[in-house]
Amino acid sequence: MKNKPGYPLLAKGRGLTDRLNRMLVRAMPGHCHFCLAGISGDRPWCDTCFETLPWLESACPLCSEPRPTSVPADMPCGHCLKKRPDFDASRVPFLYEGEIARLIQRFKFSADRRAGHVLFQLMLHALVSRPGQIQAIVTADLHTSRARSRGFDQTLWLGRQIACALKVPLYRATRLRLTPTQRGLSRAARKRNVRHVYRVTSALPDSVVMLDDVMTTGATLEALSTACREAGAVHVGACAIARTPAARAI
């Protein structure tokens, strides 16, 4: 059986892997993922560690660019005032630093399922803690060669967990071509790099949320948003785990 592009494992072994992953989670209850202190409940963190994570406390409501807490919460940043992004709003709970950056790196580049479970719980908390109708989740496939080199598609894995938890369908946007990495590119170059790179082949409901792991300039999510609107979505939101200040990418 051939592996389908973007899938974490061969379909034949995926069920066994998922069962082993659930057993691993159940086998490690009662301890905070970050400090190993005893905890109660089903969330893998203690209150102290949760509060000390690198929260994004003040951000642009459209692109989640960090800014001083003195700026009104509903005021878009300068970039969005000059050119509003294609998506309507974004939800990004953390800065890409400290424990959050380490979690993402372990999950993304080392396929650490325990880190993935913690990130899933944090992203789900960010989504359900803010009001708003979500009719579907949309993720963008990694190119086949990149998914093969990593061994799995981390955004697809997160999307499946989130969609299942929210009881909404998951849609996947097909990547039409392999693009160079976004690392080190300027804001303008990032937008050019991913322009017209995604396609959603299924008709979408009115209100969807796009998922990504890290948001820097929002170029990838904006390209995905364009594909979502072409597929019929009216309200398009974006959600990522962490935000890298866009200034770092220039």
TrEMBL record:
This is ComF family protein. Pfam families: DZR_2. Belongs to the ComF/GntX family. It comes from the Bacteria. Residues 28-81 form the Double zinc ribbon domain. Coiled coil: none annotated. Gene3D superfamilies: 3.40.50.2020.
